[in-house]
Amino acid sequence: MRLIDKLGLRVGGSEYAKENESFGTSTLQRRHVTVKGDTVHLTFRGMSGSDWDVRTRDKALAAFFNERPKTPKSAPAVCCPEQEGRRRTWQGTVVAAQALGRAAATGDSSPQAVTAAIKQTAEWLHNTPAIARDSYINPRVIELFEKGTVVKGKATDKKVRELLT
């Protein structure tokens, strides 16, 4: 869950990985992960052939990967159940809420601000803007922005939940 939360990774599925030679959190292999100090670096091919090259500073993740055997390189790096959906959808919503909150703070309430927030969310998710908007951003975040209601400051899970309720 930590990788999904921090980096926006999909959960992934073994059948999809085999058929498409792409990976998600549950199908990452040891060759995709390097650790230097507290920094975890992931490089892999994701869904739709999107190349991922991401880093995060996280002591707990670094310790987790350092405790795992390093070989064979094709062995699983992470073991978790295959379940796509809610968590990733939520993180897309949080990213969009943050972008829309920033736009509102500068006085921008234009349709272009919505487009920019969707594009930023899509980039964070390594997806297309259409898929980000249709599948990963709660439409109420955009509706509320258009009515002048946004998250103020950093879009935490709590603030976004409060915005949507």
Automatic annotation (TrEMBL):
Q: Which residues form the DNA topoisomerase I catalytic core eukaryotic-type domain?
A: 1-73
Gene3D superfamilies reported in the protein's UniProt record? 1.10.132.120, Topoisomerase I, Chain A, domain 3 (3.90.15.10)
By its UniProt entry, which SUPFAM superfamilies does this protein fall under? Answer: DNA breaking-rejoining enzymes (SSF56349)
Choose any GO biological process term that the UniProt entry carries and state it.
DNA topological change
Gene Ontology molecular functions: DNA binding; DNA topoisomerase type I (single strand cut, ATP-independent) activity
Q: Which Pfam families match?
A: Topoisom_I
This chain belongs to the protein called DNA topoisomerase I catalytic core eukaryotic-type domain-containing protein
